[in-house]
Amino acid sequence: MRLWLAVIAILVQAETVDRLAVTVGDQIITEQEVMLHLRTAAFLNGVPLTTQAKDKRAAAQKLIEQALIRIEMQSNNYPPPSEPEVDEMYNSVVKERFGNAGTEFVNGLAKYSISNSDFREALRQQLAILSFIDFRFRPAVQIPEEEIHESYDADFVKETPGKEKQSYQAARPSIIEVLTQQRIDTLLDRWLNQTETATRVRWMDAVFAESSK
Question: Which of 21, 47, 88, 181 lies 20 to 30 A from 6 at CA?
Fold first, then answer.
């Protein structure tokens, strides 16, 4: 009896520490994962952490989308990023946001209660997802030359005092990339909406109640 009571106490304690928040198919998202996502986003954006119900729901929705993408990646045996690729992204983000991996970066991790390994893992997941999105949707995008011209006429031929006007040929690659990314975003949003609708997603409402801590 004492053994069973001990097991129950452990289970109750675990549930209190990290409750189930959402299920996506056979994948689970815990409350602590939602909170870690919120803390990491606030850390990277340099803003105060907010944990109201609407913030937790928005973070959970992002994690749902990531889970849907991971399921697709696993189904198609898409390779994960290599360690050198993760290292490159890690170093790039740290340098861009903090100048180096010194005191500001370390203190920031501590302030938002993020371990370095959790931060690195978040970047690994982001890199894998970005790579897959590009692989999955970029080949389907074709930008008509007429649309490139229209974008150039609208955005690149405006007079800027003291700045030489960029030629069409010089501006063309950057215009194509901007329009391509817009198309990819549209295709991704459509795919996510369709895939989420076709997937069993269950929210544990108690986790996202206003009174939830």
Answer: 21
Say whether pLDDT at 12 is over 60: no
- Cβ 157 vs Cβ 148: under 8 Å: no
Higher pLDDT, 12 or 136: 136
**160: pLDDT confidence band, cut at 50, 70 and 90?**
low
The number of beta carbons lying within 10 Å of the beta carbon of residue 198 is 10
- Whole-number pLDDT of residue 8: 41
